[in-house]
Amino acid sequence: MRIAILAHEQFPGRAKTALGVLRYGDHEVTAVLDRDRAGERVSDHVPDVQDAPIVGSMDDVGAVDALLIGIAPIGGGFDESWRSDVRAALERGCDVVAGLHYFLADDDEFARLADEHGCELRDVRRPPDDLTVADGVAREVDAEVILTVGTDCSVGKMTTTMELAAAARERGHDAAVVPTGQTGIMVEGWGNPVDRVVSDFTAGAVEEMIVEKGDDHDYLFVEGQGSIVHPAYSAVTCGILHGAMPDRMVLCHRAGRERIHGYEEFRLPALPTYVDLYESLAAPVHEGTVVAGALNTMDVAGDDAAREAVAEFGDALDAPAADLVRFDPDAVLEAVL
User: Could you tell me the CA-to-CA distances from 182 to 25, 113, 156, 209, 215 in Å, in that order?
Assistant: First the structure.
């Protein structure tokens, strides 16, 4: 399927859904929409993902099957400056895929246009209607469950999940990804968007996926969300932790991050604090341990400086660490397997 990705004024640094689809999706991306970078290319900014031209609007996009909203802003709202591009896509007969808390299918104009032109509005953050509370049985599946946890949001949990699962498969292991957020769901084609689920059902939504896949694979890599210290998203983090009942965890961090993204009045705790927090919170339902760290060094210039940052991160955790995109993942993979 040929797609265009909308990432206005946010590519690449604040368009993590766009980057995730470019890196891990199996669609042909024909263009990225960013009015601030029109005329440039994806490879001008991110060299290790699928390349595509960056254009100003849907008027500059060739034949595509779908438009994907590649931005997930804090709060998941819809920016009205995107409306003309969504409207143009629907009028051309393209499906529109979004991972927002604002559901496009509930927008009267978009619903009318989709009906008139035979298009589909896919709101991947709309949870199933049949979710319920957890039964506390995720620890009983045959698979080993590995969960990515974070020091903050937007530090690389989805990327770490995807990279570790791919590396495990390359070694011949039967590994599956359990997606819990909009980007993972778009890439994998299934999953429960846990940050949209009723709070009582969050652990159950994760457990449901673990039980569905847990006896069919040797390893399940569960995509984490948020952070246990995040003033807005900690409830989602705890729900995933207790619903997944992981055997092992990988702590993800972004090099240089000292304050919580979007809530800069809150400082991040010392790195070893996270190990104690996640392990002690997991222990009442299932003993899970933080066995490795994944450091996002995209803001670090030069491989030597990045290696030094990784080494310092590993020392702080007293565990193997790596940037799984930039460097070899073997040390971290050995720890989780």
Answer: 13, 24, 14, 15, 25
Instruction: Look up the domain containing 102 and give its range.
Output: 2-123
Is 37's pLDDT higher than 90? yes
Rounded Cα distance between 241 and 245, Å, is: 6
d(CA 279, CA 241): 10
Residue 244 contacts residue 145 (beta carbons within 8 Å): yes
**Nearest CA-CA partner of 147 in 32, 244, 232:** 244
CATH code of the domain containing 110: 3.40.50.720
Instruction: Give the integer Cα–Cα distance in Å for 293 and 95.
Output: 38
The sign of the dihedral angle between the CA atoms of 258, 261, 267, 270 is negative
What is the rounded average pLDDT of the residues 266-293?
97
Secondary structure element (H or E) that encloses residue 184, with its range: helix 182-188
Q: Is 184 exposed, middle or buried (0-12, 13-18, 19+ CB in 10 A)?
A: buried
pLDDT over 90 at 161, yes or no: yes
Strand partners, 145: 220
Dist CA 76 CA 225 (whole Å) = 14
What's the pTM?
A: 0.94
Interval 235-254 mean pLDDT: 98
DSSP 185-220: HHHHS----GGGS-GGGHHHHHHHHHHHHTTT-SEE
With 90 as the cut, is the pLDDT of residue 93 above it? yes
Same domain membership, residue 157 and residue 110: no
Here the tokens at position 254 are 């972004």
> pLDDT for 200-224, tens place per residue?
999 999 999 999 999 999 999 999 9
Task: Kindly report, residue by residue over 51-83, the tens digit of the pLDDT.
Answer: 999 999 999 999 999 999 999 787 889 999 999
Closest CA to 207 of 158, 143, 134, 145: 134
Domain co-membership, 118 together with 172 = no
